[in-house]
Design goal:
mainly beta; 7-stranded antiparallel β-sheet; 5-stranded antiparallel β-sheet; about 10% helix
């Protein structure tokens, strides 16, 4: 650090306004094949470009832009009743792998689990401010499925002044919304916790129900009991169809609520008074065609300095047409899994169409690099998976790079990518039914990692997350400390967002430079009764590689890659 008494005495010591660069611009590069509509899934997508002379390329400021159309199966705009939202971090969900080449030499690769790697990297390296603003606007990084759903629904709304301490609310009693007065024999409302379905019926000697209860409880409003053990618990209305997808004038569906009081109320709900709560809201963006901006989680795109002339190529491998359609959305919990429209098939629940896809490379003018050998410091992230067999304390074994400097553990449902209610970019696991009713990954009660002769955390982690108890704060805080997010001026995601997106456990792992260990043992145990039928353990290893690049006569002649 320079001394506070050290004064600059020469103009050459002053920082330049442009830091030695000139004419920064973005160049547009199309893929080498057609990717529009159903052609998107037809094999690898290549982007090729080159720079020469005094043009330098800035990897960290380059990105991809995709234009998409998300509609129902018939091609018309979505509504809230459909329960369809774009997936969190949508663009990465469409790809299974990718790599970057310099002069045909692969220098960076994500071989599998592209959306999982991208989700972790985003949460590790981006501040809460970035995720809530730029991230949400450019790639739907918000944790709330219902808010993302509102953005792409023709009848979507958002709460006015969402950041305000207390938005204005209105509560309407049953008579005001078309039901009869509360009494033992009045109109009744029974709730099934497993599906989120509330069914209205006529009690003995009661008057008729409203012609369509969905008009009394429109999507986006809240149903609440006024008496009983569940009094005051709000349940957001997401659709006016039943769990099987058939229209009904006597049922609504609310977001499944894991509150034990609500579940216990189901049988007694027949005689309870109820009401509707609404909040002041404004229309959302209500878009069915939109742009996505994405930087792939490849190590080369983390390089912050410019690179001289060379031949460059980005290769992305999309999911199959069935997979990328399912992975593109996150359907609301408590309603049936959604089915995409496939080529030649009957219209189903939704359809994602790619309208166009381009790569934009940031380039600047700088000094010509004729004869030079330079190094790239590359930080790679890889993901591996192992099935959780039972709740007992046991270990899973993984092999990692000898240059690993950090490790991350998370748990995810095996059905993610197949059941549209389960996002591939969230680290969540649910119980056995197709329509999940409870989360399982937060039932972890013991965990530690053994690598290079060291156990972390030490002593073993002993988290607990049950009704009335949250002992996950230390794990949340320690993850933010290890990653540096704890000290970020833009803030870190809140603990509730950490739970909603899925808990992950990140540990920095400094060690002796001569240590070449490659075996990692992850030890974990879960509370009795945890349903691990569909749970897998994800291990992310973060490692260092060095690319040595030799330039002669203004062009790259050799590329070598090795572990740091």
């Amino acid at each position: 650090m320079a001394s506070i008494f050290e004064l600059k005495t020469n103009v050459q010591e002053l920082s330049s306004a442009n830091e030695g660069t000139s004419r920064m611009e973005y160049d547009q590069h199309p893929p080498t094949r057609d990717v529009v509509g159903n052609n998107f899934a037809n094999g690898a997508i290549h982007f090729r470009f080159q720079t020469s002379g005094q043009r330098w390329w800035l990897p960290s400021r380059s990105y991809l832009r995709m234009r998409c159309r998300l509609t129902d199966g018939a091609g018309t705009p979505l509504t809230l009743a459909g329960g369809v939202a774009p997936n969190m971090g949508l663009m990465s969900s469409l790809f299974q792998s990718g790599e970057f080449r310099i002069n045909d030499k692969v220098v960076s690769r994500v071989a599998d689990f592209m959306p999982q790697v991208d989700a972790l990297e985003t949460r590790l390296t981006k501040s809460k401010s970035w995720i809530d603003s730029v991230g949400e606007a450019t790639n739907f990084w918000g944790d709330s499925q219902s808010l993302r759903q509102a953005e792409v629904s023709s009848d979507g709304t958002v709460v006015k002044g969402e950041t305000a301490a207390a938005p204005t609310e209105t509560q309407a009693g049953r008579v005001a919304i078309g039901f009869d007065a509360a009494a033992i024999d009045s109109n009744i409302a029974s709730y099934v916790a497993a599906t989120g379905v509330i069914t209205f019926a006529i009690g003995i000697n009661a008057v008729a129900l409203p012609a369509d209860v969905r008009t009394a409880f429109p999507a986006g409003s809240f149903f609440t009991y006024l008496t009983g053990a569940a009094a005051g618990v709000r349940m957001k209305v997401i659709t006016g169809v039943n769990g099987a997808g058939a229209g009904s004038t006597t049922t609504i569906v609310v977001e499944p609520n894991w509150n034990a009081d609500v579940a216990a109320t189901a049988g007694a709900a027949l005689t309870l008074d109820f009401a509707r709560i609404t909040v002041n809201s404004i229309p959302s963006r209500r878009i069915n065609e939109f742009e996505l901006i994405w930087c792939p989680p490849l190590s080369l795109f983390k390089v912050g300095h410019a690179m001289p002339g060379g031949r460059y190529e980005l290769v992305l491998n999309p999911q199959t047409i069935t997979s990328y359609q399912k992975r593109a959305i996150e359907s609301a919990l408590g309603i049936a899994s959604k089915n995409p429209t496939l080529p030649g098939g009957a219209a189903q629940d939704f359809k994602l169409d790619v309208v166009d896809l381009y790569m934009y490379t940031a380039t600047v003018e700088g000094p010509r690099a004729d004869d030079i050998t330079y190094l790239l410091d590359l930080e790679q992230t890889r993901c591996q998976s192992e099935k959780i067999d039972n709740t007992s304390f046991a270990q899973k074994n993984f092999d990692v790079s000898p240059s690993t400097y950090a490790l991350t553990v998370a748990y995810q449902d095996l059905r993610a990518g197949e059941n549209t209610a389960l996002s591939v970019s969230k680290f969540k696991s649910y119980n056995a039914p197709v329509v999940p009713t409870t989360v399982e990954e937060l039932k972890l009660n013991r965990m530690f990692i053994n690598y290079a002769g060291q156990n972390l955390p030490a002593p073993d982690a002993d988290p607990s997350f049950v009704s009335g108890t949250d002992y996950t704060t230390q794990r949340y805080a320690e993850t933010q400390i290890y990653s540096g997010a704890y000290f970020d001026t833009g803030g870190a995601e809140s603990i509730s967002e950490w739970h909603e997106r899925g808990a992950y456990y990140y540990f920095s792992w400094p060690r002796d430079g001569t240590d070449r260990s490659t075996r990692v043992n992850v030890h974990q145990g879960f509370a009795n009764g945890t349903d691990v039928t569909n749970m897998r353990c994800l291990l992310f290893d973060h490692s260092k590689q060095v690319a040595r690049i030799r330039v002669q006569d203004g062009r790259v002649v050799d590329v070598q890659l090795e572990d740091a």
